[in-house]
Structure formats: structure tokens, C-alpha cells
């Protein structure tokens, strides 16, 4: 289902005409709504957010076919969120209702054996993971909710979203938050510390050439 089809379906559910939706969105006529619903106009993220508010939808509702897999090409389409994850001192975590969600294509082989529904992608900010070949601007793919042994994870500590290597110590119930850059120090915190959320395990990454 396309973005335009999502809008048309919801508009009809609400019993609105194209003229009524155009007025609520601030358009001068229904022509713009007609073009959007038919796919002639490609909406920018800010417009999608406004449509979501007017129609009573979440931004994610505009991407009902994500994730999706094309067996002919081996391409997997997954959500790409606007939140940058910091390989550095921390990137402030955005509220969920402020996140813009797009989609990005990856090779399905990058996430072999991982549930497609858990996958998401985000851009890296900072240089604390360069010794793991994760550089500023790179795209990391992570499995949301997956916590499985030592490895590279996306996590939030006191509202700061990070990508770091985590090392678990079951005996002391502590967690080492390790930067793969000698210029950054390792942090050790309680595994059940307040303000700690492990968002998911990184399953792959690639250099962003855009």
C-alpha cells in the first residue's frame, strides 16, 4: 500500500471528502489531495507528520509494507528512523512522536536468521567506534529488543542514544560500555541501572555514500 493509498483509505474511513481533507491540511483545493492519493506527488517527511496528526494515524502507519522482502532481488526494506545514534558522548533521545520514519533497502543476507519485524536502521554520529570500522555517517542495522551476549548494541543511558560494544558480567551484574576508540574510556554500570535501556543488537552496518 502506497502513502497515497493510506491517506485515501483513512480519509474514507473518516467520511471526509477530498475537499474537506484539503481544507484541514491548508491546501487551496482538492487537487493536491487527489494528486497525493494517486501517487503523483511524493510527500516530504514533514507533510507525512502533518497528515498523521490530521488523520489520527502514527507515522509508522504510512509504511504498512515495511519491512518487506523481495525474493527476486534479495532486497529487504526496513524502517529508517531519523534518530541519530551517537558513537561519541551521546545523542539526546527523541520522543517517539517526534521521530520521522522512512525506509531503506538492505541485503537480506545482512540479517540472516533475524526476525524481519524487529529490524531498523539509523545513522551514526561520532567517532567512538572507528576501530570497529563504524564511522560517522554510517548506517547501522539493529534488531530491536534483541539482547544476546556480548556485542555491539544500540542503547540509551539517561536519555542519550549510543552505539557501543557491550560486555556483560553475570557474576557482578555489571555492564561494560566500550568505545572502539582509544580516545574514549570504558564505562561500567549496573546492568539494571535506572535510565539504562538496551534498544537492540547491531546485526550489520554499511558506509553511507549519499
Notable features of this structure?
4 helices, 9-stranded mixed beta sheet, single chain, 3-stranded antiparallel beta sheet, 34% strand, elongated
Main sheet makeup = 9 strands, mixed
Helix content: 10-25%
Name the poorly predicted regions.
none
Radius of gyration over all CA atoms, rounded: 20 Å
Instruction: Tell me the number of strands.
Output: 12
Helices and strands: which structural class?
alpha+beta
* Overall geometric form: elongated
Classify the beta-strand content into a percent band: 25-35%
Question: What distance separates the N and C termini?
Answer: 27 Å
- Series of secondary-structure elements, N-terminal to C-terminal: HHHHEEEEEEEEEEEE
SS element count, helices: 4
- Could you tell me the mean pLDDT? 87
Please tell me about this protein's structure:
- This protein is 19% helix and 34% strand.
- A hairpin with a 2-residue loop joins β8 (151-157) and β9 (160-169).
- α1 packs across α3 and α2 crosses α3.
- It is built from 4 helices and 12 strands.
- The chain is α+β, with helices and mostly antiparallel strands and 210 residues long.
Task: Provide a concise account of the structure shown.
This protein is α+β, with helices and mostly antiparallel strands.
Q: Secondary-structure map with pairings?
A:
Blueprint: H1 3-13, H2 18-25, H3 30-38, H4 45-55, E1 68-70, E2 75-81, E3 85-86, E4 91-92, E5 101-107, E6 119-125, E7 139-144, E8 151-157, E9 160-169, E10 174-178, E11 187-190, E12 196-206
Parallel strand pairs: 3-6
Antiparallel strand pairs: 1-2, 2-5, 4-9, 6-7, 7-12, 8-9, 8-12, 9-10, 10-11
Amino acid at each position: 500500500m502506497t502513502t497515497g493509498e493510506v491517506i485515501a483509505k483513512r480519509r474514507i474511513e473518516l467520511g471526509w471528502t477530498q475537499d474537506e481533507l484539503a481544507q484541514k491540511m491548508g491546501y487551496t483545493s482538492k487537487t493536491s489531495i487527489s494528486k497525493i492519493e494517486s501517487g503523483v506527488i511524493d510527500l516530504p517527511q514533514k507533510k507525512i507528520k502533518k497528515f498523521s496528526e490530521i488523520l489520527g494515524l502514527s507515522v509508522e502507519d504510512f509504511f504498512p509494507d515495511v519491512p518487506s522482502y523481495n525474493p527476486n532481488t534479495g532486497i529487504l526494506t526496513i524502517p529508517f528512523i531519523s534518530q541519530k545514534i551517537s558513537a561519541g558522548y551521546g545523542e539526546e533521545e527523541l520522543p517517539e512522536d517526534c521521530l520521522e520514519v522512512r525506509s531503506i533497502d538492505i541485503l537480506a543476507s545482512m540479517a540472516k536468521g533475524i526476525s524481519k519485524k524487529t529490524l531498523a536502521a539509523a545513522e551514526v554520529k561520532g567517532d567512538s567506534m572507528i576501530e570497529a570500522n563504524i564511522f560517522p555517517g554510517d548506517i547501522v542495522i539493529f534488531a530491536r529488543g534483541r539482547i544476546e551476549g556480548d556485542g555491539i548494541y544500540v542503547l540509551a543511558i539517561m536519555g542519550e542514544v549510543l552505539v557501543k560494544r557491550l560486555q556483560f558480567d553475570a557474576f557482578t551484574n555489571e555492564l561494560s560500555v566500550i568505545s572502539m576508540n582509544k580516545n574514549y574510556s570504558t564505562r561500567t554500570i549496573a546492568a539494571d541501572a535506572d535510565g539504562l535501556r538496551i534498544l537492540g543488537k547491531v546485526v550489520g552496518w554499511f558506509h553511507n555514500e549519499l
